[in-house]
């Protein structure tokens, strides 16, 4: 199949780093909350991301996991501030506009993101992903998270499309490789790479940008 074959009619979009971002980064944003109480902010974040993993697949609830994590680090009183940072995100307007333009051109666009239920519902309500996309695939709803190949297989079942008719855009190399392993077309892109790069990647798959 030619790389410029216009057979791609559905694009799956990651959220963090693609459609939304935390401009200062996790460590810089969390440091005012916990930096005066712990020496190793990055260590705290590493443990937090590991503890969050079961919540991404719906096996746990982050609002119950986070208090226990904070207590272990002696940060029990920092729950509200920590949750505020966890739920802080800024939309990438250029990418969102591109999604709208593709949909206007007849290309189906869907959200494909790893999120726990609390953050996912917050994103859905505050950033309007239900209106922005034709469909949304949150990991906590699917019961499996990227980069597990089963994540992409479940989406393909929902879409009822061959894998090579679907393009996936994500900023994480492991997720991109996993998608390709399932047969999807996939491109790695982060907001810092610039919109021109994203346009070039989409055009390579025959998309009208």
Structure, explained:
The chain is an alpha/beta fold. It has 2 domains: 10-22 and 90-203, HAD superfamily/HAD-like (Rossmann fold, 3-Layer(aba) Sandwich); 26-86. Helix content is 50%, strand content 13%. It has 11 helices and 7 strands. The strands form 2 sheets. The chain has a 5-stranded parallel sheet with strand order 5-4-1-6-7. Strands 2-3 form a two-stranded antiparallel ribbon. Helix 2 (41-56) runs antiparallel to helix 3. The longest helix is centred in the N-terminal third of the chain and has 16 residues, at 41-56. The mean pLDDT is 92.
In summary, what is this structure?
The chain is of the alpha/beta class. The protein is 50% helix and 13% strand. The chain has 11 helices and 7 strands.
What class would the helix/strand composition place it in?
Answer: alpha/beta
How many strands?
A: 7
Shape: globular
Instruction: Compute the separation of the termini in Å.
Output: 20 Å
At the fourth level of CATH, the homologous superfamily of the largest domain is: HAD superfamily/HAD-like
Give the helix tally: 11
State the helicity in percent bands.
40-55%
Q: What value does the average pLDDT take?
A: 92
Radius of gyration: 18 Å
Unreliable stretches (pLDDT < 50, length at least 5) are none
Q: What's the architecture of the largest domain in CATH terms? A: 3-Layer(aba) Sandwich
